[in-house]
Amino acid sequence: MRSAPTILHLDMDAFFASVEQASKPSLRGKAVVVGGLGPRGVVATASYEARIFGVHSAMPMAQARRRAPNAAYLVPRFALYRSISEQVMGLLRALSPLVEPLSLDEAFVDLEAGGVARDERSARLAGAKLRADIRAVTGLTGSVGLAASKMLAKIASEQAKPDGLVVIEPGTERALLGPLPVRTLPGVGPATGDHLRRAGIHTVDELAEAGEDELVRLLGKAHGHALFAMALARDERPVVAEREAKSVSVEDTYDVDIHDRTRVGTEVRRLADRCVRRLRAAGLSGRTIVLKVRRYDFSTLTRSETLRGPTDDPAVVREAAARLLDSVDTTGGVRLLGVGVSGLADYAQEDLFAQAGGHGDDPPHEEAEAGPAPQPKTPAERRWSAGQDVRHAVHGHGWVQGSGLGRVTVRFETPGSEPGRVKTFLVDDPALEPAEPLPLVSRGSGEGEGAGAA
User: Where is the composition biased (Basic and acidic residues) (predicted)?
Assistant: First the structure.
């Protein structure tokens, strides 16, 4: 372990929900829940105002609505979240060449490797400057933990939430960890936590007192050794700049079980195209195509096919997924479908393009990657999702508050405006069009023009 707290862990505060609040002035300070809005949707992120009501990530959306019926429920806007994440990661990489992203909103940074910190004072200054820079660039807040190891830095950032900075000084680790629940430690999930609780082990101190031999007996050699070391605050894991992706996949859960075999096939092709778009965006290709099917009775089947070499051709992936679907019985209905590609490489083998019946055309038009799959709709009626960006020819930029019965309700406001006016239109109003999100922090004048117009 290091002698100075020069490992930093950043965790953006309620990231998705905070982005939505920053872009929608009328939602600031209010309960906001982001996730799949269908009856089988789950919560991706809840604002701190929504958490007061017991709403949390991974909770079924139906349960969240019961707990916080007056919250704003919005579909995720992943393209916007990714763009803001790139801004944040750019700030981290300006600090050090060793940045280990864990997700869009979370990363470790080795400050010592970047030469910006060598002791507690310089590490604290770097953390404080990072938080200020994030607020200036994105308008959002992030919590920072500083410690001599990755495990402790993550614990520190959790203690710093929301919008804070906590430093764990070397030499104080055991005293800090002792009274904490065992679930605090990395690798202790619900199952391991229950197993330890049945053995009378509830805190990190009790974990250390149990001894290494007892933990190995309870949890197995590798897990037992690792948890005993962590209970003693020993964590030598380095910050790793590149985390190699093992697979790329997409999946959708459907509000209503799909019984029609033709519809199932259509969904699989659509998922294959989405998966290929992710592959190409990452500059990757893969050899193994994987199909995931969860049936009406919650049984989950996985089928895979390995090609002669890596591909990023949509026709190849579509046809492989279709062949895999032929081997799956979907009688009774399907509630979830997924398509993935593993065995990744950073090139594609051109001769594989001939495996598909057609040519390697680009995937069809871009589809939203958030929430459940779109349900069938009549050609005459456009669908509008809660939270979606729109622009009206007269009233300017706004976002969808809700839609139904042939009408859509829009609030016209921008990140830099006051809370805006609400107006309702027919869903096929030609003056209303989907729009791109606006920057959270204005880089020039005129971006808010038209918002809230009467």
Answer: 359-368, 379-388
